[in-house]
Design brief:
single chain, alpha/beta, Rossmann fold, Helicase, Ruva Protein, domain 3, Ribosomal Protein S5, domain 2, 3 domains, 4-stranded mixed sheet, 3-stranded parallel sheet, 12 helices, about 15% strand, globular, disordered C terminus
């Protein structure tokens, strides 16, 4: 009696009129009482204290708090680009060659092609889509045997898969004032998030704050906090905030079909609004994350490793992090840290000094 029991995707457990599985799991996973667990099907007591339970989940938000409290949490973050290339070269490629009925003498895939696959075709935390893309390339190569042997490189990769689906766009999106680049954590790892802000014309009579992009309650509160901070500190920041009472403010986070929530976009929203009011665009190579308080403090957030990996994948070179998140940098691979310029900030003023372009700086278009 010493088994390992895997509870796969425990975050998908739901409750309905037939019962609540999490209530039973509470008793099963609690080490203080599972040694006297009673099986109501066989009506016998069973000692579960020697069972090793492993549960997996993509997100923690949907796991009930009491159930999560009985688990020891081990976070497995996404792979870096170099790690994906190594996994694809040493494992995925050999497996897909065998399934396609090919050998290494028939098709050679260069490391540059694998790197482009990982960066521009399959932006993900793992390697599932990467393996699918490799399989598509090899199946197309196997169709016409007259072209074998064949070398797949980064130049002819679009002939097999078409145009890339993911290309860096920060320079294009942030070319106008009022658009900031943020970092977020999703179910498949980190991702880049854009925050857009606009002001209504005074003659329209529109006032108040509009928030769009399917934002959660916490994210909506972050937008109100950002606006309140700028209104109360506009004079010292040299921002024309007096006009705000006569003009409506609209904050939008694109990808409106995707629900978004969390406090870590507070600093991004504040910077977007400050950029709009000052008329100074935000540097296209800068991304940021952090919660903002009413006094302008930048508070710590979670998911630092995933967010820095996302910034690295998107071509960002400068990242602004809360100062209290400095210990989390130890979890980030050294190869990624070396290519990123990380600024640890404690106040919104530091963020604006770094992120906003100088007053007379030329605007660079993508």
């Amino acid at each position: 009696m010493n088994p390992v029991v895997l509870l796969d995707e425990v975050d998908k457990v739901g409750s309905d009129y037939r019962g609540d599985p999490t209530a039973a799991l509470l008793e099963v996973l609690d080490p203080a009482q599972n040694h006297t667990f009673r099986d109501h099907y066989l009506e016998v007591e069973l000692d579960l204290s020697d069972v090793l339970f492993l549960a997996t989940a993509n997100v923690l938000d949907s796991i009930p708090g009491p159930l999560l409290d009985r688990m020891e949490l081990v976070r497995l973050d996404g792979y870096t680009e170099d790690e994906k290339v190594t996994i694809a070269r040493d494992h995925l490629l050999a497996r897909q060659l065998e399934r396609a009925g090919l050998t290494t003498d028939d098709v050679t895939v260069t490391d540059e092609a694998l790197r482009r696959l990982a960066a521009e075709y399959t932006r993900e935390a793992g390697v599932r889509d990467l393996e699918r893309s490799i399989a598509r390339v090899l199946r197309k190569a196997a169709v016409d045997e007259s072209k074998l042997p064949l070398t797949v490189n980064d130049a002819n990769l679009p002939d097999f898969l078409g145009r890339p689906r993911h290309t860096p766009e920060s320079a294009e999106r942030t070319a106008v004032p009022g658009v900031a680049t943020g970092l977020a954590v999703t179910g498949v790892g980190g991702d880049v998030l854009f925050v857009e802000a606009s002001l209504a014309d005074p003659e329209t009579g529109s006032t108040g704050v509009s928030l769009t992009g399917q934002l959660g309650d916490v994210m909506k509160e972050s937008a109100h906090i950002a606006l309140s901070y700028l209104r109360s500190h506009g004079a010292e920041l040299e921002l024309p905030v007096r006009d705000l009472k006569d003009r409506g403010v609209h904050v939008h986070v694109p990808a409106g079909a995707v629900p978004k929530d969390g406090p870590s976009a507070g600093v991004t929203m504040t910077t977007a609004l400050a950029s709009l009011l000052s008329g100074r665009p935000i540097r296209s190579d800068v991304a940021m994350t952090g919660e903002v308080s009413l006094t302008g403090r930048v508070l710590p957030i979670g998911g630092v490793k995933q967010k820095l990996l996302a910034a690295h994948r998107a071509g960002i070179t400068t990242v602004l992090l809360p100062k209290r998140n400095e210990p989390d940098l130890d979890d980030v691979p050294a190869s990624v840290r070396e290519q990123l310029e990380v600024h640890l900030v404690a106040d919104v003023r530091e963020v604006l000094d770094i992120a906003l372009q100088p007053v007379n700086a030329p605007v660079l278009s993508a």
